[in-house]
Write a structure and sequence with these properties.
12 helices; globular; binds fe (ii) ion; 9 strands; 6-stranded parallel β-sheet; alpha/beta; TIM Barrel
Amino acid sequence: MNGLIDIHSHILPGFDDGPENIEQSIEAARRYKDIGVNCVVATPHRVGGTRWSPFPAAIIAAAEKTEAALNDAGVSLQILPGMEIACPENIDADFLSAQFLSLGHSGYFLIEFPFTSAITDTIRNVTGRAPGRKQPGIIVAHPERCTLFQDNGATLRQAVAGGMLAQVNIASLFGEFGAKAAATAFDFLRLGLVHFLATDSHARGNRMPPDPRQWERLVELLGQDVVETACMVNPGRMLRGEKVPPITLPDETRRNTQPPGHNRNIVERLINIFNK
Ligand SMILES: [Fe+2]
């Protein structure tokens, strides 16, 4: 594959728990090129009231500087500015535009909801808004990892019906965030509630961008068409500010695809039942 776009990536050095230096960014960039990614949206964490509160201008400047440094190192990778915004108190379109960076200036904001607590009021605020009120472009970052969405499937359904988009982490599909996140990710895909797959790479340790073997596994799991839609076509639509449809799994994939280790989990569950 070629022309893939990663819409969620911690690739700018020195902003958050991503790369500590440009060398780590370059290493991650080489991995991206190996799997056919040639555009990455840099999404440093933005958590109000903490040291992770970068100004948009600083991210824009760092994205340009990092892209130039990658080029100098012989790795040609486009880096667009963005943010992963910890759910703010207000998610009105005007407020978001005034305070934060959207992904590649697209008007779509990547929002990370709390992993554990339920903040359904925020979702109701967006989905229940009066007709005619400006709709913010919101992408929910990895809902499969948040109990808010895991424990109540209707919450993401309501969010998507109200115009939000959802991005699932590729590593979640491989069970790297636990069996529950993996099962939830597959459920959301089967239900047509997912618009993007992204790496959420942190450019170090076990959170590097996928290598070619992992990418091959992803294609085996979901099929080439689905991966292209999730990692190229839909990201392109989003960056152009267009409407983005959910990913549709072909019937056969919907029926047969299970998270890796699925059978083991069933066995574990049965053992637990018999032990009780
Ligand atoms: Fe992230």
